[in-house]
Structures
1.
Amino acid sequence: MDESARGTWDRNRLTGRLDDPLLLDSIVENIPHMIFVKDAKELRFVRINRAGEELLGLTREDLIGKNDHDFFPREQADFFISKDREVLEGRKLVDIPEEPIHTRKRGRRFLHTKKIPLLDADGEPEFLLGISHDITERKLAEDQIRLQSEIFRNLIEGVVIVSATDGTMLSANPAFERNFGYEPDELVGEHVRVLHSGTRQVSADRAAERVIASARSEGIFSGEIRTKRKDGSEFWSWVRITTVEREGFDPIWVCVQSDLTERKAAEERVRRAERLASIGTLAAGLAHEINNPVGAILLHAETALLHCPSNAKSGPEERARANLEQIIQQAERCGRIVRSVLKFAKEEATERWPADLNENVLRARNLLRREMGHRKLEVETRIDDAIPKVRFNPTEIDQVLQNVLRNAAQSHGNDLKIRISTGTTPTTVRLVIEDNGPGVPEDQRARVFDPFYTTRQQKGGSGLGLSIVHGIIKSHGGSIQLDTSPLGGARIVIDLPRDDGEEGE
Amino acid sequence: MTRKVLIAEDEESFRIVFPQFLTSQGFEVQTTADGRSAISLGESFVPDILIVDWMLDDLSGIDVALALREANPQLGLIFITGFSKDELCARAADRNLERFECLEKPFRVAKILEAIEAVSGGNGRAGGAGGAE
């Protein structure tokens, strides 16, 4: 029947034509399920429709007059025939919800089959009618869902499904519930806001809004956010949110989350250890620079004092003597201050204040030259005197410079060239360190900032230097990139955000 | 007998003031700015006492000390450093260098005299200041 015909039928005409064998024939032929009829005695096919031919991959000419043993593997044919017998002997419908079948062209398929006995006038089975629905696709989809749900349940990462329309949680996996300290299904219906804790600068609601706004506008969000457990305790999470649009349903957000507590703690431990070590080195270098001149001042003053008669009670000699004694006292005081700085250098100092990056660069250059001693080393500095002050912790940035420069210096045997430049971009103050060493192959660049990744194992590289550098720059809200220098080696580009009115004090 | 002091120090200021003070105390003093010339001067000057900066431009003070000790095992040895004494002592121990004094800059002149006494093996102060010899 075609579309136009269906619309014009009325009830009477339909009833009138139901006896028409052509109509029944047409229905049987065109129905999308396999329909077959077998004779009750020998179970040979007497009728099969087009859907049946397509499913089995055989024509009706192949099938009519044959039975299942002619087409199917023995075991399968035995199963079909035993079911057929059961139907015929019991004289009632048998529903087989799922049976596998081997087909010529489409491999193994799964059918939902109903087998019905057709009885003759005496009530004896004459034919067997079979109607089969191919449920392979549905079964595969169900299997897929089962598999995915198993993955969902067993993931180490937390996963939560959130309504993109109103921000309420629709479901969460056990890892997510565990990470946040909730009972199973307890989060369902809650707004994602309850998971945010915010930071010192940003309230929880504001933080939640930012994430939601980003997911809305970009369709995706990924980053570290401060999160809150049910008991109110806070922790860092890494989160990736993807918007999933669904035909006919509201869009959802799939959020994958992992608890960064352990990683943050490990990073912090590493950072502290390395910081203490390198502040010590820096302070020692600085102390040396100051102790030399102060030491000279002290000896000069004392020696000068030897020329002043000690019995002078007044006059120029007495005044000179008093002045020299002051110089001696003050020089000694300098010495004590430097020693106490050395001592306190081991304490933590992470305060930030507006400072001049160029000063750090020059300091690091001098230290590097001292460290490298007699090795041939050419250090070129291209300082932009106009760079604005930016807010950072000079000690930490010293550490960054030392680590990067040490890497550069150790990258190459002799005739080493290192270039340090400062400059600006519209939003940042930029520091570039380049060398003419062997550089870092492209496939390793992404990993050089990973903790414990080193290319200098034999030479005693801890693999921590650049990961600490990375941590420090990130903690300053900056960025660090590694690529190739025109000098031929590696180039590290560090950007620190300009203060420009943000937050102020 | 006038005791001889060799000073190896890259800071010019120290090379000026040390001889002024030490000659006023009756020592005979020579100075050099780097390690190699200290070693070669040591051969002709033959000092009783070497005062040497730990970190010279060309050599470590420890290298200079070891070279001169080889020629004269009785050489009195005083290191001066702008860094920490502990670090220096550790480095010296690594090189099996013993019997020395160490002065951390800044130090008073009195400390120099104490150090000289200490490394002179009980011979006391030399020269004009009522020396024991």
Note: Residues 33 and 115 of chain B are 21 Å apart (CA to CA).
2.
Amino acid sequence: MSKTSIELDKMWSVISEVISSGGEFRLFPRGTSMLPLLREETDSVVLVSPKDIKSGDILLYRRDNGQFVLHRVVKISDGEYFMCGDNQFSVEHGIKIENILAKTAYFYRGDDKILLSDPAYMKYVKSLKKRRIKNRIRNILSSLKRKIKK
Amino acid sequence: MKIKDGFILRDVGGKTFVVAVGETSKKFKGIITLNETGKLIWQSLASGVERDKIADRILSEYDGADRITVEKDIETFIEKLRKDGILSE
């Protein structure tokens, strides 16, 4: 069957039924915040019920303003989940268990199914911390350059 | 011929969607969108209505539809479902 683009807030009640039945739902996320792992319109995640969440998991959650987000957990502390996109360096605070809707059980890069136990994926997840530090330094340097130019 | 277990049909924002739930969703991921006629055929198949009776239903609901076209459309729809393994014989 062909791909259909539907607003997540309209479809969430249906997706939620699938997930709470113990099922799986394949979602093609939009945006660039999970690059280079998830490319818009090409890659997809398979969502399941958010049980046993741990640092490194990719979660679908809903911010208090209603916005749906698919980002990675970078830390869990005192019932608070610290979230960050793979292509970002600013960590989002204040996400609670009630915001969390689903977690990624595995994903597809194009048509290739990738398990979270895949060695190349695990290596990638390990490299993220360094990548975030690099991005942060690059960002500070470019904002300094802008200030100097002014 | 019937729709296999594990599929749910839902109307959301004026559109009709079918998704798989539970174990079935591990094989069928994603969403099927149906138009009005598709919804009628789906619901008929789900409740075990025979093919010619489905055509009767559609013909009674839509003025100006001719039986040959309707039967052809039903056949195409059923063939699609069969191809995707959604129908049990």
Note: Chain A has a mean pLDDT of 92.
3.
Amino acid sequence: MILTEFDYARPAGLDEALALLSGTRGARILAGGQSLLPDLRSGADSARLLVDIRRLADLRGTGRTPDGRHVRIGALTTLADLAADQLVLAEAPELAAAARSNGDPQVRNLGTVGGNLAAAGRATDLPVAAIAADAVVELAGPGGRTTLPAEEFAAGTAPAGQVLTALLLPAAGPAAAFEKSADRATRYPVCATAVRITADGPRIAVTGATPAPCACAGWRTGCAGARTAPKPYSRPSAPNPGSCSSPGAAPRPNTSATSRESSPPERCRGPSGPSPDRPTTGPARAPHGGVE
Amino acid sequence: MIAPTVGGSFGTKGYLYPDMPLVLLLSKALGRPVKWVDTRTGLMNSTVQGRDHRQHVTLAGTRDGRITAVRCTSYANLGAYPSTIGPGVATALMGRSISGMYDIDAAFCEVYAAFTNTVSLGAQRGSGRAEAAFLMERLVDRYASEIGMDPAAVRRKNLVPKEKFPYDNGLGWTYDSGNYQLNFDKAIELSGYADMSARKAEARTRGKRLGVGIATYVAICGVGPSTRMSQEGMLGGTWESANIRVHPTGEVTVTVGSASTGQSHGTVFAQVAADELGIDPETVQVHEGDTQKAPYGQGTYGSRSYSMAAPAVALTARKLKAKLVRAGAVFLGVPEDKVVYEGGAIHEEGNPENTKTFAELAMAMWYGWGLPPEIEPALDETTHFDPPDFNYPFGTHVAVVEIDELTGETEVVAYTAVDDAGNIGNPKIVQGQIEGSIVHGLGQALLEVAEYDENGRLVSADLGHYALPRAADVPFFALDKTVTPSPHNPLGAKGAGEIATVPPAAAVVNAVVDALSDLGVRHIDMPLTPEKVWRRLRGESQ
């Protein structure tokens, strides 16, 4: 049961959606609802307006970009469709595997690519695969369309009031993989790793074991660069160096008795350099402007 | 009281919880209906929790594998308040069960109950017996390793011989019947135990450590003989009841005093009545859960319905049959000893033409015409069944696990269960109960734990923080059974619903310790999370 009152709008076009988002305080994007609705029920979020973008058919489906070198995935594509998409299976198999591993069939049938990327604070599975693939997200805002590297988007650097419209990945062929050790209660990654072999060498990204999904430092020379002096893994109360450069980042316990959101938002050193802290609580997620 | 369809109890719903009298009190005070709705987190903080012993045990045995004595001192956490039956679960049910399938000359157990600030302790599927089996089966593995014998050989050597039944286990239980050797050998063979060395070597080539663990058990069920239960401190009868009413059409209504929490009473009791009366089960309806209409009963818990309520149904049907034979003599015009009841009809012995169907008899009895004064009209009988003693199902389970050497993740790759619940009513239903029970036990071994923080707050208070096993977490099970009828009820039945929850935790921990034994690992406390196993793989102590 959702105890707070809110308005509901179902815009027919992107411009209308953007107008609603920028014109209303407490506006939230509703797509698959797999993060937003539980937050509304639990009281973690109190939206004033739900902007249901599910009628924006342009945001659904996959295809190649005109130059043929990228795969474009519409933000409203469901995880189930993504996991079974022939183009994605051929050109971004790590992303398809991440989609297949995320949640359960009900979540995958409703959850969307955009929502999954925007809900990175919940340790979803797509961001790490997108980061390893050197993907960018396409954002539509009042000022037009922009792109942002997936890792920066996962770090929460996108300005508010935007709609995530698509994920763009370089086509890779089969030289990519995704593996996850899942929390047995939530199926969130205790550690998930995505690897993509590129002409420059392997790109590796990690999530779960790190406070935010991030590319391994030194991936250009192979990930060993990030692991030259790993300290031993320590209990959750103590700092966990892992492959992340930030001190004081707590690892997630196996059955996440401490929720991820309680960890201090630390950043990993990634190829894009330091990024600001990522907002991690429910209401603060909305400024991502991502599809929820 | 009317209890409509109630979801699974698994031990936790046979309690007087504080909200129950509160709702009644409020309803009386307000003069209006009152409804109680709880949240998942509220329920996690109030529903009884299970297990939670600190057990200190010593086992004595000879160098050639004969167990001579076992002594246990256990401290049981009752939580903040004693629940309806928590103290009995922690003490008698656990303590009297520790010797399991083994013939041990000197067995002793004492349990101290402790009050703490946790949620109250109560019954959880397999309660008491699972704690006992875990203790004994871990201990047997330790003993086997100490004397350098195969754990299967040690177990085989100590099983209660079948000629010793009824067997007094020296701790307060008298096992009714059993053929433990047959059961044990069947499980060991079915599990492919002899090939495990080759499988271990093959697993190592894949970066996995394979381990095999055995657990046997005896699980007292059939609560119960009322007088015996009073000696355990039960304040009240523990018999069970059934009424059968035959309608003039020949249709039958069975009304039982117990109420289902998912045990398929409607199917099983109809089958029992139909089998006894020789009629089509489709013509039998089962009613329960309304105290205004049902005979007094004691409830469904402790795997008791099929060995307590079903016998009441069977005995009631037999009363009806006997009455139909007496009345049939009148209707057929022959002496009573010439009346044959067969296939849902009566006929004159040697003259099958002189016959009356069940429906004809039902109508005739409803009219009551021509009956002698000693035969009452109508067909409506009730039985209250109180058995002479408990019944003791048993079994042998074998778990095979593979541990990922990199991540410490434990996967149960094979699971064999050979259980003996005496004569079984509906094999499909029992198979479902066995499968569910094993999954439940695997959850205890690998996933489930009530975690409290330093302030005593329950942090595993929702399903995002309390891991339950799912279908993908378990393998397909290899299931078989042996059948040793109980002498203590007319169906030869033993409890079934929870029994297979008793051994899996011990079997899985035995298997994991087996897989890590060359690292010097002797024990790991449940649940066997990847982190705990990973640390042991790296030589850290517990």
Note: Chain A touches chain B through twelve residues (CB under 8 Å).
